[in-house]
Amino acid sequence: MKSVILLGIKHCGKSSQSVLLGKKLDFDTYDTDQVIVDMTGKSAREIYTESGEEAFKTAEAAACTFVSDKIAGCGRSAVIATGGGICMNPAALQILRPLGTFVFLCAKEDIASERIVREIKIDAEGNLCNLPAYIAKRNPRSEKDVRDIFHEFYIDRDRMYSGISDIKVIMDNAPKAVNADRIIAALQKLEARVN
């Protein structure tokens, strides 16, 4: 089996599924957001906030190049968890595309929305904090605003990820191991169809 590249919005389960799939398939695992931290000393969110979108995209593409080189160097397949906005970074996608299968982990909207709302913090002035950048830049004033902004975003990203992925797997509100088995079954089905 080729390497597996996990795509999808924030909170769809890419990081946790990459670890589970790596164990089940005996593949190495990489998380591009963690590689960015290792390479720059800053999180994806910090780079985006401090230096802007283009600086973040450059860091993300560099992280993907690093992962690609590591895979080429060891000759083993890997499971790669990508950042939630990689669909907006053609350079990064171009680096990852030759490595294997793009798998869109599609979290149900209500589950993903709930995970985002759960992480909201409120500062001393009553502003909502700890939001994904794409929500924060719209200055939501309430939980309802956050959910409304997320809804628009979810529809757009579902369309984008469906368009670039080889497989779309709906992530049920089920134990992580159950979803991992569903991903493997979808990969095996694709492989059988190709061969």
CATH architectural type: 3-Layer(aba) Sandwich
Q: Counting H and I runs of at least 4 residues, what is the number of helices?
A: 9
* Euclidean distance between termini CA atoms: 11 Å
CATH level 4 superfamily: P-loop containing nucleotide triphosphate hydrolases
Mean pLDDT: 93
Largest sheet: 5 strands, parallel
| CATH level-3 fold name | Rossmann fold
Total beta strand runs: 7
Portion of residues in helices? 55-70%
Class by alpha and beta content: alpha/beta
| Top CATH class | Alpha Beta
Low-confidence stretches are none
> What is the total domain count?
1
Function: Catalyzes the specific phosphorylation of the 3-hydroxyl group of shikimic acid using ATP as a cosubstrate.
Protein name: Shikimate kinase
Pfam families: SKI
Pathway: Metabolic intermediate biosynthesis; chorismate biosynthesis; chorismate from D-erythrose 4-phosphate and phosphoenolpyruvate: step 5/7
Topology:
Layout: E1 3-7, H1 14-25, E2 28-31, H2 32-40, H3 44-51, H4 53-74, E3 78-81, H5 90-96, E4 100-107, H6 109-118, E5 121-122, E6 128-129, H7 133-136, H8 143-164, E7 167-171, H9 176-194
Parallel strand pairs: 1-3, 1-4, 2-3, 4-7
Antiparallel strand pairs: 5-6
Helix pairs in contact: 1-9, 2-4, 3-4, 4-5
